[in-house]
Amino acid sequence: MTLTNSNISATAPYGAFILRVALGVLFLAHFALKMFVFTPAGAAGFFGSLGLPPALAYVTMAAELLGGLALILGIYARAVALALIPLLLGTIVLVHGANGFFFDGKGGGWEYPAFWSIALLVLALIGDGAHALVPTRRI
C-alpha cells in the first residue's frame, strides 16, 4: 500500500485514538498501583519522604484517575494531556532524575516519564482522535 495524503488523513484520527487510550490506560494503571499496592497512605508517606506535602499524593491519584478516564473517553483529551505533563515532569525532577537516564536502573531512571511526557505533548498537538466524546475545541 502506498501512503498518500488521503490515506494518512483518513487514518490519523485512529492513530491519535490509539495513543489517547494507551496513555489513559497507563494513568489508570499508575492510579491502581498507588491505590491497591502502595495504598493511599503509603503513597502519602512516600510523598512526605520526598519533602512534599503528603496530601499531594491524593491530588496525584485523583489526577491519574480522572485524567486517565478523560483520555480514554476523549473528554477534552488535548487539554487533559497538557495538564498531565507537569505531573510526569515532577516525577523526573523529584523521583527518577537522580537515578540516571535508563529506566532499568535501581529506582528507575527518567527515560520512561520523559517519553510519556512527550507522548502527551504529541497527543495535545495532533488532536483528540477518533471517538472522542467531548473534543477539545481550542488549546
What is the compact description of this entry?
With 139 residues, the chain is an all-alpha fold. 71% of the residues lie in helices and 0% in strands.
Strand count: 0
Beta-strand share of residues: under 5%
Low-confidence parts, pLDDT < 50 over ≥5 residues?
Answer: none
**Computed CA radius of gyration, to the nearest angstrom:** 17 Å
Outline the biggest β-sheet: none
Specify the structural class: mainly alpha
Task: Tell me the number of helical segments per DSSP (H or I, 4 or more residues long).
Answer: 5
How confident is the prediction overall: mean pLDDT? 93
Shape descriptor reads: globular
Distance between the termini: 35 Å
Series of H and E elements: HHHHH
Proportion of helical residues: over 70%
Notes on the structure:
71% of the residues lie in helices and 0% in strands. It is built from 5 helices and no strands. It has helices at 5-38, 40-49, 55-73, 77-96, 111-126. α1 (5-38) crosses α2, α1 crosses α5 and α2 (40-49) crosses α3 (55-73). The longest helix has 34 residues, at 5-38.
Task: Outline the fold blueprint.
Blueprint: H1 5-38, H2 40-49, H3 55-73, H4 77-96, H5 111-126
Helix pairs in contact: 1-2, 1-3, 1-5, 2-3, 3-4, 4-5
Structural features:
mainly alpha; 139 residues; globular; 71% helix; single chain
